[in-house]
């Protein structure tokens, strides 16, 4: 456990994650108060990466539950090993009564544990559980999560209530494809994770792509910042995230690029954007405007 916000920031930086003061405060309070943390923000701003980095910084195992439409309880919590249960019942035929066989087949050794149950049963110091893109799951699944989020326990009808051996650090992420239920939000601390400022993005690019020269790293960070700002942001459906900045820097290094120019920007637009219209919008003319000194633009 980190004893201050500063030490938490330093711990995250040591594993390659640059958190600003507000984000570090939210994470610190989630650890201190032992509450789940809900992170919302645009795709690619570092929500999932925070959970991975926090697990490294805390020296805890990371468990990930990737949410999607139609996700069921058995895929998140547990399911029974029906094949093993069937073998047991066949072996017990004629040797025990039905009630005894039923008790025996519903033992913990026949449980197939999924991320939520694994998180509760992880011994001290506990796990970091990432419930990723929870907004992609449906409302019944949100209702199912409430017992875990509020009390760090789950109920299995055949066994009873299973409580956490060591409280897991729980991070939920959402890209806001839909609004989450208020009951979920009330059980969590909340933080809106925005795009980083230029200095933080530059630090991330330097750390993740050390092969990039100083000039190129600064140009990448500055260029992406301008892409996200007005009036240029209006030309695109979605601004590139931190993940795209890092990937773009790696691509530029692979092309032996020492400094940005309109041609290389236009040729590599598919690294920054994933929509056809956005890639087409970042042509050489617009790239030249973005690369021009700001005081030359009207």
From TrEMBL:
Gene3D superfamilies: P-loop containing nucleotide triphosphate hydrolases
Organism: Ramlibacter aquaticus
Domain AAA+ ATPase: residue ranges: 33-206
Entry superkingdom: Bacteria
InterPro entries in UniProt: AAA+_ATPase, ATPase_dyneun-rel_AAA, CbbQ/NirQ/NorQ/GpvN, P-loop_NTPase
Pfam families given in the database record: AAA_5
Protein name: MoxR family ATPase
